[in-house]
């Protein structure tokens, strides 16, 4: 699932949700409250609160098709509730219902600041619970608060990655480490800073490390094609290292990588050896 995760660890979201969970639990008289994040194939619980009975642990994952979250997100009301999951038509046959042995449930869609689906905010209880429209609106209001916190976490993560990490090794040789999601704004800065650095420092070789790259929605970043082409035109040798296995397995990405005028090696040390440099202790 590495290809869809942001660099953000959502520390602020976790901290704020912990404070809200007790309020939610008291307001709705439920044992458990939790936040999930949607991945490419599964939903993961990233923060949770269990008052008396330990029901949902953090890190708990369920395949997307078998989750209550899918039903919530696909609902026109962006909410789902029932007084008994075991007898509710949409949930009684789900494997997770048998595993958790809970009854009362209410969940709402959790979106980020821009309206994109992040995951869900849910509550559940081992006893039957009747949820009113007022309860549903209360949960949606809580989700609205958390959407601003998600935006804060993502903004912090983007700021940390805003700089272009060019590491000079020796005269003419440098390493560019591409980290996180490369959006359009970052692509322009990476392109400008890298080509400017190469021209200013008389670079003859560039190692581009991809071990920390993240793809959102499986989109191949055009920056790689444009950057390699620009460096090639300047007469600079380009080598790529750290290609993650999940990246190479994607046919659409593999086709792009094959077209690039560059050499691929396993790691930075191998790239340096190919150029003629040796790492010494």
Automatic annotation (TrEMBL):
CDD domains: STAS_RsbR_RsbS_like (cd07041). PROSITE patterns: STAS. Residues 163-281 form the STAS domain. It comes from the Bacteria. It holds the Pfam family GAF. InterPro entries: Bact_StressResp_Reg, GAF, GAF-like_dom_sf, STAS_dom, STAS_dom_sf. PANTHER family: BLUE-LIGHT PHOTORECEPTOR (PTHR33745:SF8), RSBT ANTAGONIST PROTEIN RSBS-RELATED (PTHR33745). This is GAF domain-containing protein.
